[in-house]
Specification:
This protein is α+β, with helices and mostly antiparallel strands and 440 residues long. The chain is 43% helix and 19% strand. It has 2 domains: 21-226, Metalloenzyme, LuxS/M16 peptidase-like (Cytochrome Bc1 Complex, Chain A, domain 1, 2-Layer Sandwich); 247-427, Cytochrome Bc1 Complex, Chain A, domain 1. Helix 10 (274-286) packs across helix 13 (352-365), helix 10 (274-286) packs across helix 16 and helix 12 (331-348) packs across helix 16.
Length: 440
Amino acid sequence: MRLIYALILTVVAALPARAEVDIQPVTSPGGITAWLVEEHSIPFVALEIRFRGGASLDAPGKRGAINLMTGLLEEGAGDMDARAFSRETEALATSLSFDVSDDALSVSARFLTENRDASIDLLRAALLEPRFDQDAVERVRGQVISNIQSNQKDPNEIARETFDKVAFGDHPYGSSLNGTLETVAGLTRDDLIAAQSAVLARDRIYVGAVGDITPEELGELLDTLLGDLPAEGAPMPPRADVEIPAGTTLVDFATPQSVAIFGQPGLAQDDPDWFTATVLNHVLGGGGFESRLMTEVREKRGLTYGVYSYLAPRDLAETYLGSVSSANDRIGEAIDVIRAEWAKAAAEGITQEELEAAKTYITGAYPLRFDGNSPIANILVGMQMLDLPTDYIATRNDKVEAVTLADVKRVAADLLDPENLHFVVVGQPEGLGASTPPQE
């Protein structure tokens, strides 16, 4: 068993540099593009499709329509109601899933080679001919409403939604893609049809495929599956104006422990300093128990069970965020320590030892993402959406290794803004005053 385990680790660790992660750009006869990694050892294909725009394309006054529509794509299509669609999926041993964020609607399909055509026909029906039967609409609407009501009682969700409102205002990023109780209750079948045509269009498709399929077969599959979608969807929203004020927003909530989301403007993933910022963040708050924030806030002072920071680039805005929770009588101290560590890193950068440890972790963790057809298909789509080259997998770790101590010090000074780091605190903190009113 030890030998087998060692062999598995060796195979996984070598994946990004191995020749079989050979990305082939494919263009269908109808002009639809995709990236393919052929792997014929198992008769199985993973297909990942994303439609850029996602829930940000909700029409004015219809917030939540694209989220509700997405939840209904597997609730009946063509001549199959929800039960018949589910039975057919199970009979084919096919996995279909649909998800949506503010930046993309994602479609994931997993199917056996012998059932490829039937599985694609099923997925095609879901994308082009969703039924939106009234009983299914009301069932999924009820699930969404229940989720919204649950989020209204969850301090973490309250903090997140409040911070988004502070940061993004009236931009779609500033409100929950779930919508509100009022907007979701008012959505009609016509709204769902409009939402479908807004986001499921050929001008915003990105496809990754991994497994037992040739480029020629994938090209035919793409035209069959996606060729009859509308040529164009709704216009993309403008970039968000990220205007995060200095100070603190308090949201009163009866709980013995306050929850805080903190953040400032960030940087885009295609920024030349992205990998330097990634190393910096790993040291500051992204490295788990090895990070400075965890050491100072948890280990030395016992103020929290966990504190984290992370770069949060989105298609239309970039932020640098973090989260912490602490007892109401200690959250103020936790915030002071976080600000102090933000300021220390901005002024001094990091140490050589921290730099080397961060690079070792970041480069060592990267191969572990390539642990199957599905994760690789997901990575292929993400690379395309970021306009990365096909050799990125082989060169990514080189970019991390190239980061120097001087690079980190420069980026820390430019990026970190301790004076304007904004905190949204949900709870009943003691001795902590608000400098920004709660967002309605």
